Every structure is written in C-alpha cells, then in structure tokens.
Model the fold of this input.
Amino acid sequence: MKKTFFTLILLAVTTLLSAQSFQFEWEGTVYEDGQTIICPYDMEMGEYVQHMKIRNLTDADLDIVMEQYVIETVPGAIVQLCWGMCMLGDTIVSRPVTVPAQTLSDEELSFHVMFTEGETGVVAVRYVGYNANRVEEAIALNVLAGQGANVSENSISLGQAYPNPASTQVHFDFNGNEHSDVTAVVYNLLGQEVKVQSVNGNRGRINIAVDDLQPGIYFCSIQVNKATVKTEKFIVKH
Done:
C-alpha cells in the first residue's frame, strides 16, 4: 500500500502522459491502454486465465510493476496476478520485473480468476502496469471473467477525454449502439470508485464534473449491464 500511495502522489503532479515505453501482447496480439479483455476459460486448469508478455519499446532496460484492483466480484471468487511471483488479493502491487531493452519479456504475465463450485457471475479486475522509474508511464487493462462476461467491445465507442488535463469538466464522445443500462464510472489510481453517472441515450457526449476531484490521473469506464467494456484515462489539474 505504501508503494501504491507513492505512485499516486507522483502521478498527481504529472501534467502530461509520456510516450508509451512498453506494451502488453500475447501471440502477436497487442493490447491497447484502456482495453477490455474477456478472459478465456481454461478447461484443464479449471479457471479463467489470460496469458500475456510485456514488450520493452525503448533502448534501456525497464523495471515493470503490475498492480491489481478487483472492481467487481462474486462470493468465493479467487483473483490472482502472476508477475515475477503469483499473488492473491483484491489490491496487489507486484515487485518490479526487469524487461531488457527492445525485447519481449521472458517472464510471463498472467491474470487468473477461479470460482467456487456452484458460483456464477462476472468478476471485473483492473490491471495497471508502469515503469518503476517513471511511474507516469502507466497502461491500464480491464479484465472480465465469468459467465455473462460477453459484452463486445465493438458494440461501444468511447472517445478520448477532452479537455485533458481537465479542471472543471471532462467530456467523452459516446456511442452505445442501442444498449440499455449504460453507466459511466470514474476510478482513481487506487481502483476506488469516485463517481457514478448514468448515461442517457445511446449516443452523444458524456459530461462529468471533476472540480471536486483531487489532482491526479483517473480512469472513466463505460459499463453495460455492470460489465466494463471501455475505459479512457484522463488527468485532473486545478
């Protein structure tokens, strides 16, 4: 938690997002910042698991830290992050793992969700990776696991935040393609929900007041039937 707090303080004074220095990928697929992943079920392991590696895009070695925040869960669900070592818990900060310059990590990154017998539902987890020496270089992924985690990303479009940084309001262009029960949820870097706002209509502009938020980096997630399908990052600066 001390490391997480330190991360938050440094990010709070950041005014611009740095160029991407690393990326998540698996077997040729590159996962973008803010992307939502539907975690596949592994019959042999008896759990939902998403495998990944991290590619260093720079000419220097990077020490990459992973953080896990369980946003939505069901009774008895077990959520695990494996990066350097495997860790259980709703809020996790890993130790740094070094990824050599211009290479794909030898170390495998994986996300795991296991349900107790007879339990069903959707578990939603946010993962944030960042360079331990430049914590403003953060990339977030949303992972959904369980029965019902099947909302297509392509059914929702969410534009980038503007203005960014924002001081009083932040706006997002939105197209819900006839979905019902659409909600915009804002989280801070600790994975804490700080704002919830119903989205009226299937398209248009989402306006969110941010003048009551502390300076720092936030994530706005669009949820359809309580499943997160799109996330955009923005900065609050007063």
About this structure: The helical segments are 2-12. The CA atoms of residues 63 and 126 lie 20 Å apart.
